[in-house]
DNA sequence: CATGATATCTGACTTTAGTCAGATATCTGG
DNA sequence: CCAGATATCTGACTAAAGTCAGATATCATG
């Protein structure tokens, strides 16, 4: 009925008024939006004045005045940095924390309001995740992490759950050769997590072995982040890391029930090889020389 | 990983900056946002001053000044309405249409930008439709329309396509008893379309018969609008219309492959009855006395 | 320790948005 | 035709946001 651009614009209109409502509720606390935004940035852990200014896109004069007005209200304190007295740090006072908490409550209430009365919350949240990931595509950061940290374990949990859904016989981690975490840490290997504005949306592991090659394991991209070519980015980053570690040969196993993975490997220089392990789940094996 | 409120707030952040970018590009045309918004409202067919003021939520004094500034620029002309000289109508001049076209191009470019480089456009658009429908839930209007108009036919097309996907044997309209359009128009029946900000997102038909009852046909809710209790609203509105038309007994047929429909009927006072027609598709039959 | 770079602050502005009371013109119903 | 309602306009204001030039203090470097 509507062409794609009209659908996007309908979305824009809908979302603009919902977001505008949050601004209005912020104004209800008797403070201009500019000051409220600075207070909230500080509350969310941004303490350097220059960082806040940059984040909010403010002129330095305006920023200075906003800080002064928050100080006059007794909500923040500023101090020169010890290592560089030109830079200033801002932090909340006790009263400032109270005020910040009140803003947080408003934000959460608005968020709950958007979800309320929608009988398919999960679908709505999934749509929001998808759009947020798409819009922040260029800002997705790939971070090396310990595979046992919270974010990595969240990704792995989602990965296993998805395999369970995609494999007709289900998936039981304990039957698979669960890679030892220390093989996926430097210097033997590494583990990368893709973070989009605090939310992990993908991962991949590089597992060192003693057989003259390293393995790519646990490549996962959140359903909300598919279509952003994140799988390719994760693979590229892992290959770079492998080169850095002096690894010359990479192998991986996968399953034909995951056709998009196989397609990615084939289109990026991987070559199919015969089975090289006895894991019960994979039925496709690849190799790539770096 | 993130709780629901945090996911909504991540979505808010992502979307705010994307929408802010559009405002910035509008400013690039050397006109304050307020004036640009009025110009665009007129370009989109809103001609009554009061209607525009209401739509944009402007004070009457401010509105008057914005109109004046657009007139001074030579972009619009205003005139008193013939039937009521207190009210004014605004329309674009030739220069105004040019300027409006330029704004449209900016909007479309931004929309294309959001879609660009995403290899799963359809999923992204579906997510946007879902969210737009959810956010404008209270503003969904149910309008009586001729079942042969564009919007009604769009809904019916989507409805048939969905039946094709849901029925294991597919769905061929010509095999079903396609209700005659004139039976779904006053005074024999009616046809309702749910419109969410220009997009049709649901429909239902009330078909008059000569057998002492009327039938509910073609109840459809767009996938993007599920969970908003729109099906129930459409049914309620149709029952009201039926009462208005002096109809005392309603019947409908459906299929057990559409469980959510059956559940809706059962929970709103419909009673299962034996088959009352020889249509090949339905296998469940309901009746409700008004 | 002089010099240029950097971070922040201050003062003096402008623009935009918005508010509000009253003026003006027109309409509607008795 | 009159009284009250309605739609718009005008003038006089305020608040918020943003701009910009220059002042001040501090740092890094040769």
TrEMBL record, chains A, B:
InterPro entries (alphabetical): Acyl_CoA_acyltransferase, Bact_Acetyltransf, GNAT_dom, HTH_MarR-typ, WH-like_DNA-bd_sf, WH_DNA-bd_sf
SUPFAM superfamilies reported in the protein's UniProt record: Acyl-CoA N-acyltransferases (Nat), Winged helix' DNA-binding domain
Residue ranges crossing the lipid bilayer per the database entry: none
Assigned keywords, A-Z: Acyltransferase, DNA-binding, Transferase
N-acetyltransferase domain span: 140-290
GO molecular function, one term: acyltransferase activity, transferring groups other than amino-acyl groups
Stated name of the protein: DNA-binding transcriptional regulator, MarR family
